[in-house]
């Protein structure tokens, strides 16, 4: 397991040049330039503009800081806030994003369709939480300061930190005041139909 601090995450420009993303974890195929298998990142959206297109990619987005983000697809509008459930969409979808009163930060999980699938779940609990690694890839992204107790790790995570490489069967215990506030991200190999 690895606790990747916010400040240690690689900052990369958006594909469309409209902002920057902090790469939390990424897996690429043989052609690393174009063959992203999956990626977990946090993007700062400072101004209105189009989302980058990612052909063949399934995406899920969650707003983790700021007053919210409006996603516009044609005539449809979806407003995401820090209280919204994660929002899933196809990477090919033409989306324009607009901030609700100031910049936002979003957590973005992407998997290559047909190769991997993902699930993202918010954990909020005043009581301690126990997570057991089950998938090919399991990680936690922290939205608030949290105490972590796990094999080889006893530390405090801060907002923006991520606990990576939670192995199958690994047990992670989380506690925080006033509450544990984190996202559990699971990525698994897609089973052929």
Write the layout of secondary structure elements.
Blueprint: E1 2-4, E2 10-13, E3 20-28, E4 36-45, E5 49-50, E6 57-65, E7 69-73, E8 76-80, E9 87-90, E10 96-99, E11 104-112, E12 116-125, E13 129-132, E14 137-142, E15 146-150, E16 153-157, E17 162-164, E18 171-175, E19 180-189
Antiparallel strand pairs: 1-17, 2-3, 3-4, 4-11, 5-10, 6-9, 6-11, 7-8, 7-10, 12-19, 13-18, 14-17, 14-19, 15-16, 15-18
How does this structure look, described?
The chain is an all-beta fold and 193 residues long. The chain contains no helices and 19 strands. The protein has strands at 2-4, 10-13, 20-28, 36-45, 49-50, 57-65, 69-73, 76-80, 87-90, 96-99, 104-112, 116-125, 129-132, 137-142, 146-150, 153-157, 162-164, 171-175, 180-189. The strands form 4 sheets. A 6-stranded antiparallel beta sheet has the order 2-3-4-11-6-9, with no helix packed on it. The two termini are 32 Å apart.
């Amino acid at each position: 397991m690895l606790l990747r601090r916010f400040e240690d995450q690689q900052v990369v420009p958006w594909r469309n040049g409209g902002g920057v993303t902090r790469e939390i974890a990424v897996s690429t195929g043989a052609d690393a330039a174009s063959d992203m298998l999956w990626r977990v990142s946090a993007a700062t959206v400072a101004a209105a503009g189009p989302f980058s297109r990612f052909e063949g990619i399934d995406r899920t987005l969650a707003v983790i800081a700021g007053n919210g983000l409006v996603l516009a697809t044609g005539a449809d509008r979806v407003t995401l806030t820090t209280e919204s459930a994660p929002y899933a969409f196809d990477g090919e979808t033409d989306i324009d994003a607009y901030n609700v009163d100031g910049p936002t930060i979003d957590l973005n999980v992407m998997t290559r369709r047909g190769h991997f699938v993902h699930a993202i779940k918010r954990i909020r609990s005043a009581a301690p939480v126990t997570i057991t690694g089950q998938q090919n890839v399991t990680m936690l992204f922290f939205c608030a300061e949290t105490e972590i107790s796990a094999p080889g790790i006893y530390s405090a995570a801060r907002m923006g930190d991520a606990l990576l490489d939670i192995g199958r069967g690994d047990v992670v215990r989380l506690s925080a005041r006033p509450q544990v506030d984190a996202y559990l991200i699971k990525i698994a190999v897609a089973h052929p139909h």
